[in-house]
Specification:
The chain is mainly α. The protein has 4 helices and no strands. The radius of gyration is 20 Å and the shape is elongated. The model has no long low-confidence stretch (mean pLDDT 84).
Length: 117
């Protein structure tokens, strides 16, 4: 359980940061306004809410349905909920239009010669 949870957390941390960096760069090239801090804050708020909800759901499931060998349903339901949430996250992340953002970044690079942003 901890290995799978660590895998999803590390994926969220590693893959999302370059996505936000590309979005911030595209926003800057499109509008001329640097908003990197806003993008970072917009990333952190849902992460904090998710961590709080995960703690709440985990505690509820193990207290309502069991937490030991004699009554393991709470732990089993925790794995089920974690798997469903990971799948939902995968589908949301797969819907990210990376090709569109990369094409826009490449277009801005071509439009402004010598632009190394």
């Amino acid at each position: 359980m901890f290995a799978l949870g660590g895998l999803t957390l590390s994926t969220n941390t590693i893959l999302c940061l370059p996505v936000y960096a590309d979005l911030a760069k595209e926003e800057y090239l499109r509008t001329g306004v640097k908003r990197e801090a806003m993008f970072y804050a917009a990333r952190n708020l849902p992460v904090k809410i998710t961590i709080a909800l995960a703690g709440f759901v985990f505690n509820y499931l193990i207290s309502a349905f069991g937490r030991d060998v004699a009554d393991p349903l709470g732990v089993q339901l925790t794995l089920l909920v974690m798997g469903v949430c990971a799948l939902l996250g995968f589908f949301f992340f797969a819907a990210y239009p990376e090709n569109k953002i990369q094409a826009q970044l490449a277009q801005y690079q071509e439009d402004v010669p010598g632009n190394d942003v």
